[in-house]
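New to this. Comment on this protein:
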Amino acid sequence: MRLNHKHYWTSIILLLIFNISTYGQTVIEPPKGYSTEIGNMVSMLEDLKARVTRSVSELSIDETDFLLDNQANSVGAMILHLAATEKLYQVYTFEHRTLNDEEKAIWDVAQNLGEAARNQIKNKPIDYYLDIWNEVRAETLRLLKTKDDKWFNSKILKTDMNNHWAWYHVMEHQANHMGQIRFILKRKEK
């Protein structure tokens, strides 16, 4: 039996609706305790984090450490990179500074990735990386709850960037790496 064009697209739309409602949120709205704009950003950040986490949560250590080629980053390194980027934006937007020397010692390899990350970020279960990201995210959520939309739309000292754009960039960064992670996982399957 051949589906006509209308039935084909109806089937595709229903499949998408099922997948979204089963595996992701379908509404962007502020969680309780957040101002409207910050809450909407929190909703999007949390949805992306949940989708990344679902994509990787069952990986073995070999899969977590898999390198597509000698220039690639592992899934574990990318998860740690997402946590490092979020930490950087925490101190930048809430404390108006960059990472100090102590923080750089913790986050620089993950922040910069590359050869150092390929050599140092490995041999740990995926939960190790997810737990670190969870800790960073918990602090992000705690800090964002203390702010309002006026702060969110205010400029960061000595820049033209506002806090809203900074946290949008964190979200955009997660989405980009989610795509890379899924690409690597697909390639690993072959």
User: Anything to note?
Assistant: DSSP finds nine helices and no strands in the chain. The mean pLDDT is 89. Residues 32-189 form a domain with the Four Helix Bundle (Hemerythrin (Met), subunit A) fold (CATH 1.20.120.450).
